[in-house]
Amino acid sequence: MNDTLNAILIIAVVAAVTFFTRAVPFILFGGKRRMPEIVRRLAGYLPAGIMAALVVYCVKDDITGSAASAAVSLFAVALTAALHIWKRNSIISILGGTAVYMVLIRLI
């Protein structure tokens, strides 16, 4: 099989799987059917849980590393949280925290 055909087949399979995973919730819960109570309850807790897991994953190496990298990471996380509480805007808080983190890791 040549490389071009192989690449086209890979893209087709990835596109089909992506479409399927995006369509399943609409197939299962679309229309007039009511969402199960467990799904509704999980929908309230999952965003915060996912964000907490991502924060832990992102800062785990910095926290266990040098004191300077731990301080920079903790400051950036605290700044991101403070910006979000203050402005209630995800873009501002993420961009602000990321920018400060990138500047501080270059300076320290």
Walkthrough of the structure:
The protein starts with a helix and ends with a helix. It is flat and about 50 Å long. The longest helix has 27 residues, at 3-29. The protein is mainly α and 108 residues long. It has a domain at 1-31. The model has no long low-confidence stretch (mean pLDDT 90). Helices cover 86% and strands 0% of the residues.
Task: From the structure above, extract its key features.
mainly alpha; 4 helices; flat
Gist of the model:
With 108 residues, the chain is mainly α. It contains 4 helices and no strands. It has a domain at 1-31.
Spell out the blueprint of helices and strands.
Layout: H1 3-29, H2 37-63, H3 67-87, H4 90-107
Number of strands: 0
Distance between the termini: 51 Å
| Rg, Å, rounded | 21 Å
Shape: flat
Instruction: Please work out how many helical segments DSSP would assign.
Output: 4
- Helicity level, as a percent range? over 70%
Largest sheet: none
| Integer average pLDDT | 90
- Low-confidence parts lasting 5 or more residues at pLDDT below 50? none
- What is the succession of H and E elements? HHHH
SSE class? mainly alpha
| Proportion of beta-strand residues | under 5%
